[in-house]
């Protein structure tokens, strides 16, 4: 990997056009410093809910589930408007005027770390659903996003070169471990709900019910079935209100496979050993465990 390190250290691959650093973390130009400062001052209520994730962790999937829980499981109404309108992306400056004009209860998406919302979380002025996915599959999905989405260049490099960026904390939104552990510090808060992507994938009914309970919504068995069917990956890939993002590579969809364990087709033996060592060091004592392979 020495050659890869040289490539990235020379800066040929490690810069997304217009990226900038704020508090040691890289952001896209759509999230400028002034906007990050504004987010720190946004006012929430206890009825508002953040869908908080590291990028490519099942965000859109959970946005749609949460929206359907909140709108009385009106699938047709949900299809009538893009998810970007129904659950706006807080991090993007262009959405700011619309978000500040919204009345509670608001549903918002963010990839930011919790220190932006810390006071309001501690004061129970906002709820958060934190969606977590095993980091190996996150990296592979993020790699494909970098390769296909124009905001990232698109990224011209290989998987090996992308892996080096991740090692050096040079990805947009920074390091997965730092991000997840920052949110995990709030696990005892009654207004913060943690959901693992793999659990939702393997046991959708049970986890939809848990989400609804956290949101103080009562769902019938038929409503749970309706949500599970409407948010299956096959259904969502055909739904333009959620599979909305046009990529540079027409072969790629915003919603890809969603499988557990796809990382095994990308990680080399050396990369896997490095990652496992780092995982053991960073996650030790956290009590967090992830599913890296599916029995399906």
UniProtKB/TrEMBL annotation:
Domain of life: Eukaryota
Residue span, Sulfotransferase domain: 47-287
UniProt entry keywords in alphabetical sequence: Transferase
Molecular functions per Gene Ontology: sulfotransferase activity
Gene3D superfamilies in the cross-refs: P-loop containing nucleotide triphosphate hydrolases (3.40.50.300)
UniProt cross-references to InterPro entries, sorted A to Z: P-loop_NTPase (IPR027417), Sulfotransferase_dom (IPR000863)
Pfam family of the protein (one): Sulfotransfer_1
Family: Belongs to the sulfotransferase 1 family.
Protein name: Sulfotransferase domain-containing protein
């Amino acid at each position: 990997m020495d050659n890869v390190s040289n490539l990235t250290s020379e800066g040929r691959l490690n810069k997304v056009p217009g990226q900038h650093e704020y508090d040691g973390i890289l952001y896209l130009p759509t999230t400028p410093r002034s906007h990050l400062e504004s987010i720190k001052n946004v006012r929430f209520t206890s009825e508002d809910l953040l869908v908080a994730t590291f990028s490519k962790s099942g965000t859109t999937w959970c946005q749609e589930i949460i929206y359907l829980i909140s709108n009385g499981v009106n699938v047709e109404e949900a299809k009538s408007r893009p998810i970007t309108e129904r659950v706006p992306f807080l991090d993007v400056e262009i959405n700011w005027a619309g978000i500040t004009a919204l009345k509670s209860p608001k549903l918002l998406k963010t990839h930011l770390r919790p220190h932006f919302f810390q006071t309001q979380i501690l004061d129970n002025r906002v709820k958060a659903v934190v969606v977590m996915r095993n980091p190996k599959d996150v990296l592979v999905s993020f790699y494909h996003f970098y390769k296909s989405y124009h905001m990232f260049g698109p990224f011209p490099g290989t998987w090996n070169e992308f892996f080096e960026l991740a090692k050096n904390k040079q990805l947009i939104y920074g390091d997965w471990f730092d991000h997840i552990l920052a949110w995990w510090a709030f696990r005892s808060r009654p207004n913060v709900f943690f959901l693992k992507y793999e659990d939702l994938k393997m046991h959708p009914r049970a986890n939809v019910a848990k989400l609804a309970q956290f949101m103080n919504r009562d769902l019938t068995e038929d409503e749970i079935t309706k949500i599970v069917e409407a948010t299956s990956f096959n259904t969502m890939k055909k739904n333009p209100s959620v599979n909305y993002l046009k990529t540079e590579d027409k072969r790629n969809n915003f919603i890809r496979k969603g499988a557990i364990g796809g990382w095994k087709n990308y990680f080399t033996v050396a990369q896997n050993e490095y990652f496992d060592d780092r995982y053991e060091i960073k996650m030790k004592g956290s009590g967090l465990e992830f599913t890296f392979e599916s029995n399906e």
